[in-house]
Amino acid sequence: MKRQRLLSVAVLLLAALHYASGQDLKLNDREYFEQQGVNVLVYSNLFTGGFNDEKNAGIELIHHGVRTAQGGAVRLSNTPEQWDLVPDILNRKVDRAAKTIEATLRYKEYNFDSRVVVTAKGKGVEIAVYLDQPVPKALEGSAGFNLEFLPSQYWAKNYLVDGRPNLFPRYVVGNTVTKPNSLKPKQYKGYVTSDDRGTGKFIDPLPLETGRTFLFAPDAQERMVKITSSDADLMLYDGRMLAQNGWFVVRSLLPAGKTGKVLTWTVEPNAIKGWIREPNIGFSQVGYLPAQPKVAVIELDKKDKPAKSASIFRVGDDGNPTKVFTGKIAPWGDYFKYHYVKFDFSSVKTPGIYYIQYGNIKTNNFLIGDQVYSKITDATSDIWIPIHMNHMFVNEAYRVWHGEPFKEGYRQAPPNTDHFDLHAQGPTTDTKYKPLELIPGLNVGGFFDAGDFDIETGSNISVVQNFVKTWESFKPLRDQTFIDQKQRYVDLHRPDGTPDVLQFIEHGTLNLVAQAEILGHMAQTLSNAVLDNYHHLGDAASLTDNLPYNPKLGPYEVAKDGRSSGVKDDLWAFTSRDPELDLRAATMFAAASRALKGYNDDLSARALQQSKRLLKEATTLLANQKQDTSGRGNAANMATNLQLYIATSEKQYLTRFQELLWPALERNVSGNLLTALDAIPHLDASYKEKLRPYVVKYKDYIAGLEKDNPYGVPIGLTNWAGSGDVMNFGTTICFATKFFPEIIEGQHAFKATNYLFGAHPYHNYSLVATVGATRPKAVFYGNNRADFSFIPGNVAPGILFRKPDHFENYDDWPFLWGQNEGTIGGNTAYLIFGSAFKNLIR
Question: What pLDDT, on a 0 to 100 scale, did the predictor assign at position 12?
Answer without folding.
Answer: 47
